[in-house]
Every structure is written in C-alpha cells, then in structure tokens.
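ARCHIVE RECORD
Type: protein–small molecule complex
Small molecule: adenosine-5'-triphosphate
Source of inputs: curated submission
Record status: active
Notes field left blank by submitter.
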Amino acid sequence: MQLGRSDTDLLAILSSEIAKAGATRIGVAVSGGGDSMALLHLATALGERFRIEAITVDHGLREGSTAEAEFVQKVCSTLNVPHATARWTGWKGEGNLQKRAREARYSLISEWAKRRKLHVVLIGHTQDDVAETFLIRLAREAGVDGLAEMDARFERHGVTFLRPMLSASREDLRQFLKRHRRDWREDPSNENEMFERVRIRRAIETFEGLGISTESLARVSQNMRDAREVLEADARCLGKALVTQVQGDLLIEREGFLFAAKELRRRLLVKALRWVSNADYAPRRAPVEELDHAIQEGRNFSLAGCMITVTKTRIRIAREYNAVRDIVEHSPSWDRWIVDGPWEMGMQVRPLGEPALAGLENWRESELPRKSLMSSPSVWKKDVLIAAPLAEPSSSWEAGLKSPDFLASL
Ligand SMILES: Nc1ncnc2c1ncn2[C@@H]1O[C@H](COP(=O)(O)OP(=O)(O)OP(=O)(O)O)[C@@H](O)[C@H]1O
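STRUCTURE (tokenized, with ligand):
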C-alpha cells in the first residue's frame, strides 16, 4: 500500500498512540465496518517491528453477521494477519440486548488477547463516536464523568484497549479506504433510526449552522476529561485526609467532609460505597445526593448494599446485613472477603448474623460495632459455627479483604 500525505497523518496518529503504550504485539478488533477496517489496514502499515492479529466477534444476531466475519477473515488472509472469529451464543432474550452484546464482545476479545499474549487491542472509535456519545450523555443530564467519555486507553478484564483514532473523523477513515480501494461492510443498523445513536448522528449535521460540529463537541469532551482529572486528584486527596479504614468499615471525619465542595463529597462517597460493596459500577447520582443530605442532617442512611451511620464527628460506611444475608458460599471466597483456615469439605461461609453473634463470648472486644460484625464472614459446618474471624479472632482462622487497602485503591 503506497501511502500519501493524509495517510501519513493517520499513520502518525496511530504510531504515537501505540508508542505511548509501548506495545509491539497488537490485536485489532475488526467488525468489518469502515472504522475498524481502516484501522486494520493502517495497523498493517506500521512496520515489521509490530506483530498484528485480528478478531471478529460474530454475535449471530442479524442476518449477514457470519458473512461479515468471513469477509474480515478473507481480507486478513490476504494481509497475512492471523484472524480469529469468536461466536457469541449467550443471548437469552433478557435484559438490554445492545449492552449484553457489548459486554460479551469485550469478554470474548479479552480472552483472545490473553490467549494470544497481545499487549494491547485496538478498537476503531473515531471523533464522531466521541461527539455522539457526548450528546447521548447530555440527554441523560450527565455530570463531568459522563461527558468525558471516551478514553483513549482503558483496561477491561485485565486487557489494555486503545482507541487510537479518536482525533480522526469517520469521514477521514472512509476516504482512506476509498483512496486505496479497500472494501468494508456497512452495518445496516447504522441507518436504523430506532437507535438513538443514529438519530443523534443525523441531528449533529443540522447543528452546523449553530457553530456546533463534531470537532467542537469532541473538544468540549476533552475539556471534560481535563476537568475530571483534577476532580479525581482532589477527591483522592480528600479521601487520604479524612478516611480511616477499620477492617472492612470506612470512617470519614464528618467536619472535614462537610467543609468539602459538593462534587468532591459525592466522589468520595461513591468511592467509599463501591469499595465497601465491592461493586463494579457507581451508584446513581440522585441517591448519592440524598445520602449527602442525610449526612448533613446527621441521619443514618442505607445505599448500594451499605449502611451509613452518622454521628456528630464521623460517618461510618459498613456492609449492610440485608445485602449479604442470603449469600452462602461453599468455598473460602465470600462477598468481599476470603477466609483462610483449615478448610474441610462440607464447610460454608455465611454472614455471621444476630443470633450467632449473641452467642459469642468476646465480640465486644472487637474494634467493630455489632452491626458490622453481623455482616462479617463466618464459617459453618452444617449448623455448627466453626469460626467468626472478625468477631472472635482465633489462631487458626482469618478473614482478609479481596481489596485490602481503601486508601491504596483511591
Ligand atoms: N463484532 C465485532 N467484532 C470485533 N470488533 C468489533 C465488533 N463490533 C465492534 N467492534 C470494535 O469496536 C469498535 C466500535 O464499535 P461500535 O459498535 O461502537 O462501532 P461500529 O459501528 O461497529 O464500528 P465499525 O465502523 O468499525 O463497524 C469497532 O470499530 C471495532 O473496533
């Protein structure tokens, strides 16, 4: 492939993003659409120092998806790029189809990347995707974080994904393919106005007269990313200054908390709630704001599987008994804990609960209050309590947190 001037620009963008990641074994996620096909061809032009492999996920959800995967495979074989097709068969007809398909796609791509020992996986999002996502988030009344999507680099399932083409437009990539007479497959859903993204794409074209363009929306999104960086750094500092960890509970010094700015308080609460409940996702904004209100007024609150107890001087965030009462595991890993001791077949880990706690002699010597101990792990054999490591330390059983240090996790 003979590269021209604007090709060199595109290649320079790609090279610089890959250099930042220091990667040489590179995976490309290729749907067969214009963006990812252009990315594939550009990646193969990077030079011999780089080993390129490609994957296509066949979701099997619409007619033609298998033909698209075969198309990508054929192109890859002419480029001498090893290609894999991963099939998704997990759709059970429940929940949000697009969300499930995306999650499955990342999971299949990550498994492949680990198996093939790839350093990074490239995906083909462009400036247009940034602008569309910005408007979609605007319609959802997002805050700084929502408007700051998309990151040029992120980790998923232990794999690094790069979006190297965020500063190029969809049209730049289509033109690149046309110049080199390279083919791609147009996804028919890109024209289907049932999808919000398609309606937003059409709307952006009508904004030009107002001075709002793909480029300007993408720039505002970058401003939001810069703002997010500062807010995150400040929230980390606030956490380090105000939070003490006692086993699995977090104590926040209340006076300092009340003096902090509203957005920093919200960020600190989200971090604390996610750590205590071991959650992948942040709770929604409105209930966190209600919690903030409760803290100002000195009221206790319950949110996201956590119990928040407020006194004059401090805020305790602990796991809520009701959120774990039905969790029974037949292995040492329970909720956010791992128990360690002479494990035998037939043993179970459950929350300690009220009656068992009342039967213990020395629980008052623990540094944790009764309610926190109720939701702590305990080991049982049939109905016999073997160990309650947090409520009654023993020499043979311990309980360690899966994410042991809150301050280090900030
Ligand atoms: N089925 C798939 N198999 C492999 N990679 C995919 C698949 N679907 C999406 N991707 C990757 O994720 C990127 C973004 O996907 P998204 O669905 O947002 O856009 P798209 O319309 O599929 O992009 P494209 O124009 O490349 O088709 C794609 O550019 C591609 O790198």
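CURATOR ANNOTATION: The CA atoms of residues 158 and 191 lie 34 Å apart.
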